[in-house]
Amino acid sequence: MSGTSAEIDMEFVAPFIEAATNVLVTMAQIEPWVGTPHLKDPGESMGDVSGFIGLTGKQIKGSLAVSFTKPAILYVASHMLGEAIHELDETVADLVGEITNIITGGAKKMLVDKGYKFELSIPTTIIGQGHFITHKTKGSVVIVPLEIPEGKLFLELCFEK
Length: 161
Description:
- The chain is α+β, with helices and mostly antiparallel strands and 161 residues long.
- It has a single domain, classed as CheC-like (Chemotaxis protein chec, 3-Layer(aba) Sandwich).
- It has helices spanning 10-28, 70-81, 90-112; strands at residues 33-34, 38-40, 43-44, 49-56, 61-68, 119-120, 124-127, 132-133, 141-148, 151-160.
- Strands 1, 2, 4, 5, 6, 7, 9 and 10 form an eight-stranded antiparallel beta sheet that branches. Strands 3-8 form a two-stranded antiparallel sheet.
- The longest helix has 23 residues, at 90-112.
């Protein structure tokens, strides 16, 4: 499935981009380059470790995955924790879950101001190259690439109103 940004509901996607950027800038002192949101084929993750969280409400339901390449998350983790991190371990997995939660919470706060109300599930983390992300809603999967000095991360949003 391919598409243009004209097919993407930026009113809903933009708060997640802003929240992700805020997390990286304020918690890791890293300014990401944000790529163009586009539609993605479901399935294999574009990263080596992903945080996943569900969103449920009367107006909207969906999910967010935040996937990091290994070099990107090691760079982010090292900056956030103030020490060199060299491997994908339980500490990194916990951090990815927390980053996912903070991004979603920040986006939720912005979306409440636009009239959206939803609850968040507990985030889960998946580690491993080539893992699959399965969004449970019928909506299209929107992917937003972000680039930092040491690698890439990807926001994957899938929602239906």
